[in-house]
Specification:
InterPro entries: Cornichon. This protein is about 80% helix and about 0% strand. The protein is built from 4 helices and no strands. Helix 1 packs antiparallel against helix 4 and helix 3 packs antiparallel against helix 4. The two termini are about 15 Å apart.
Length: about 130
């Protein structure tokens, strides 16, 4: 019973991380099509980046505590990337540089999204 509870908890946290990434991508797409300006977009994205990092760390901790070693090994590169970008202070979006980096930011978040979707499918199938 505790395995099912831990799997469900991990699954819902992973769904939350996917929603946070989806929100960031929607904000970037709205900026690209000029629905909102860059002064509104950057704070909206910067607010959800740190909860994304924290929930990914909690997710990895739950994978380790519940003994899901393969899924943990698959999610460690994403966690290491988040830690590295946090330590280098490159995780926040700058208001003045957002138009120059919009392609790179969208690509980065799409890669994260695809990685987490594959992790979710692996978690469901495992």
């Amino acid at each position: 019973m505790e395995n099912m509870f831990s799997w469900l908890l991990c699954f819902f946290i992973l769904c939350g991380v996917l929603c946070l990434l989806g929100y960031q991508l929607i904000c970037l797409a709205d900026l690209e099509t000029d629905y909102i300006n860059h002064y509104d977009t950057a704070p909206r994205i910067n607010v959800v980046i740190l909860p994304e990092f924290i929930s990914q760390g909690v997710l990895c901790l739950l994978y380790a505590l519940s003994g899901q070693w393969f899924i943990l090994l698959m999610s460690i590169p994403y966690l290491c990337y988040n830690i590295r970008s946090y330590m280098r202070n490159r995780y926040l979006i700058d208001v003045t540089e957002i138009y120059n980096n919009i392609g790179r930011e969208k690509t980065r978040r799409l890669f994260k999204l695809y990685y987490l979707i594959s992790l979710m499918l692996l978690s469901i199938g495992w």
